[in-house]
């Protein structure tokens, strides 16, 4: 599906944020499916009458089964500055996850060292540093329960591949639909119940606070948690 005005969460001359649908890929991969960055380029080119195409820089990524806020840069200067913002951890990322098992401790901090197998695309957590590992840290808190499902808010300090998915799994709380990391079955839609809820940072050019918020997907399940 193409990107339309209703998908735009934030836009100015420097940045554009999209409400990513679960199942969309951010950049081209071996599937050759049309990636989100190309869809956004087409949207900008059509909206601003740019027959030669539009510049778009990928600032960060979300896994294909994940929905929510994703940010792109519209200029090379904004891309360079936002890359520095993410590298220096000057951005606050907030995610919501739905799990079936209640965490034994309602809030806390998780620290692991993660190793990704490039052949299987599976990440393995370790409690101490091992060869080839990357340190991963997040904080979480239980927001509530609805119909036997539990809503957890997650604030990752680092941005490692599959980090939230694998770290919540270590609590015995695999994300609903994420059979790669311990949930008993996958989703027929190819999605998991992990949503990038909010992105907060200081604008790299205007130096003003930016707070970008994505509503929950409307799929007959997720939206029941919107009031939490």
From TrEMBL:
Q: Which CDD domains match?
A: PseudoU_synth_RluA_like
Keywords from UniProt, A to Z, are: Isomerase
Pfam families per the record? PseudoU_synth_2 (PF00849)
A GO BP entry:
pseudouridine synthesis
Domain Pseudouridine synthase RsuA/RluA-like, which positions? 14-169
Q: Which GO terms describe its molecular function?
A: catalytic activity, acting on RNA; pseudouridine synthase activity; RNA binding
Which family does the entry's similarity section mention?
A: Belongs to the pseudouridine synthase RluA family.
Protein name (Swiss-Prot/TrEMBL): 23S rRNA pseudouridine1911/1915/1917 synthase
């Amino acid at each position: 599906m193409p990107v339309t005005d209703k998908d735009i969460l934030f836009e100015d001359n420097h940045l554009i944020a999209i409400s990513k649908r679960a199942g969309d890929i951010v950049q081209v991969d071996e599937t050759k499916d049309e990636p989100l960055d190309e869809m956004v380029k087409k949207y900008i080119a059509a909206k601003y009458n740019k027959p030669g195409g539009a510049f778009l820089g990928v600032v960060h990524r979300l896994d294909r089964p994940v929905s929510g806020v994703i940010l792109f840069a519209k200029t090379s200067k904004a891309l360079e500055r936002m890359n520095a913002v993410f590298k220096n951890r000057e951005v606050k990322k907030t995610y919501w996850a739905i799990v079936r098992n209640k965490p034994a401790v309602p809030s806390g901090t998780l620290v692991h060292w993660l190793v990704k197998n490039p052949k299987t695309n599976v990440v393995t957590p370790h409690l101490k540093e091992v060869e080839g590992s990357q340190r991963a840290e997040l904080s979480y808190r239980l927001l509530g329960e609805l119909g036997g499902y539990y809503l957890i808010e997650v604030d990752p300090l680092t941005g490692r591949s599959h980090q939230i998915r694998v770290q919540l799994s270590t609590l015995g709380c695999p994300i609903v639909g994420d059979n790669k990391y311990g949930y008993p079955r996958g989703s027929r839609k190819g999605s998991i119940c992990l949503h990038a809820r909010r992105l907060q940072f200081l604008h790299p050019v205007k130096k003003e606070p930016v707070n970008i918020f994505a509503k929950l997907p409307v799929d007959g399940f997720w939206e029941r948690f919107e009031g939490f």
